[in-house]
Amino acid sequence: MQQAAKFLGVSVLAGAVMAGIALPAAGALGLAAKGSVQGFDEIPANLKSPQLSQRTTILDNQGKQIATVYSRDRTVVDLKDISPYMQKAIVAIEDSRFYQHGAVDLKGVLRALNKNAQEGGVAQGASTLTQQLVKNYFIEEAGDDPTKVAEATQQTLGRKIRELKYAIQIEDKLGKKKILENYLNITFFGEQAYGVEAASQRYFSKHAKDLNLQESALLAGIVQSPSRYDPVNDEAEATKRRNTVLQRMAELGDISQKEADQAKEKPLGLHTSRPKNGCITAAKGAGFFCDYVRQVVLTDPVFGKTKEARAKLWNRGGLTIRTTLDPQAQRSAQASIKDHVYKSDAVATAATIVEPGTGKILAMGQSRPYGVNVKDDETTINLSVNGDMGGGAGYQPGSTFKPIVAAAAVEGGKPPTQEYSSPYEMTYPSPVSACDGKTWHDDPNKPTKLTNENESEHGPYAMKEATAKSVNTYYVQLISDIGICPVIDMAKKMGVQRADGRQIQQAPSIALGTQEMSPLTMANAYATFASRGMYCTPVAIESVTKKVGSERKSLPVPKSTCSRAMSEQTADTVSTLLKGVVEDGTGQEAGLGSRPSAGKTGTTDERFAAWFVGYTPNMAGAVWVGDPQHKRKMTNITIGGVPHDKVYGGEVPGPIWRDMMSGALEGKPVEDFHLVDIPDDTHEGDDPGKGDGGTEDDNNRATTGRLIGGLIGGPTDGGATHGTTGDATGGTLGGTFPTPTISLPGNFIQGQVNGGNNGHGHGGAGGRR
Questions:
Q1: Are residue 517 and residue 449 in the same domain, yes or no?
Q2: Same domain, 80 and 170
């Protein structure tokens, strides 16, 4: 009786609606109708069809698919691209009088009322396809908000009132064919499939236009209860429901009884396809690049003024994103990574390639695959990028930072022939000028020492030889001469920033690469040298279109902003210096043969990280190797099946860079640098030895300096932060740092900056090549 009363109320309301909401009120039912009509009239008559959430397709720069991502797997199609069998089947089982009634089927309401009264419950509903479409609109607008979804589906008279009014509006504006098309595109068919095209692909691996009779009947039957009639998990129940739909089609004359009977005898014929969603499915090993693209959409204001607006754009989908990813470069990067570092190794590698002069990211990969299964060595942390873009806290770049110091010096007027004594061992010069009129001071009572990698490395040296051999003491003397601030300013102009978002510390040790950076940052910085001094912000997206109805609308995308970081003369000078590193210095194993290249090696103290960053005139790339958790030192270690007593920047990252860039550049024009004439040093230096390293004895002699290097000294900004050794102990994904295993006197950590007294250091022995 309660159900009957509810349906009676609805039918009275329906009658009023059909009469134009203008009937006079009389008696109890009239008053009820009047109250309902008043509420009905207060509902805004401006329902708009929501932008249906559907899959987003991410493409490389050649237009080839990288991945599809979606919050709801849906592909919107026109009615002409949906099988006529499917159209008839859904109408037959959900609203057989669809083409005869208006927005509300009063006859259907009375039939349902009678049927339910006989059954003593709700055996039959009365909603038309149009009303169901409206309800699905509300659900679609609710998105993934459980509260809004509950409101959109609650069984109340108030919701029915809204549903009825909007149904009338839709019938008037859209017409039957468009309503049917929208309904088939919005409805949930189970198994993560929204809309008939996704459902057809999910269950039968075919397009909706190719569905036959029995397949159409199966899909139409699922709609009423996707979980109950799921053919994947309950074939018997799904078959029974399919046959019900076939019989109903026969009763309505859509098909003959013979056709229905023949179809009933056929198996379900499932040919399922697993949903392919997210960056985990990305081709060419581009899962991390795919995730970077997602981060760009979610964080760049060009895609929406608020975080919520950007998230809505991404979740709604329907986007086609053409990216900067070069398939040739990406394949080469992944192949080189796979050859040199195994995913199960104790350490990992990450590599990035960018295009000088445009900022376009051409490749991005790492040895540990994209995913959530830790047992399979998977991770979702992008080791190539900064923390705010899905990466970690970064890694000390070591001596790969030295060219930035050289650029600052040359830009400020220092000639590349500038010579310093460059002894094997020295204390940090003090005081050293810093930014904003501040001055860095070492502890005068216990001045900190630093060393070069080998005792045989002692000057005097000029810049060319000091760069080729990666002489620590030369670069500390250089930064002490020109001051810290020019180096900080040059780094900013080149887009160099800490991966954790903090400010670069103002201490002489920055010359030895103590500030944690990401491979993308370093690759893009070196691209500034390659483009003769023009820095361009990195970009990953070339264009975005959004499907609106049957049309595609172009959306604005982030553009690279280019600015001059240094003169062409300065950039060419640095390129000349770094060309010598590859030809005659620590980076010889990274050479590209007849193709001109330039670059710099870097190995942090205790060998927690090793780098090679280099470039040609048309591509720049960075390779980092290390333990993301900063626990495994790279001594007595096997990487990629090759044992190493010690890992050097030129020995492991160098060959990875060489093979990666060789493949990426294959078929590309061979371009040369604009070199400058730098006279050879008059002081003959010793052989740089094995890339970035020295002997074990050499390392032991520098142990004390390396351990305490960055812990002694003075801040320039009055803030007490950690200190690190020159090229030494580095940032990890968690941002932790090793603790010295020696006891320190009470006032051991100190320093002065214009009277300030808090320690963050300048570095010790580190700065390995």
A1: yes
A2: yes
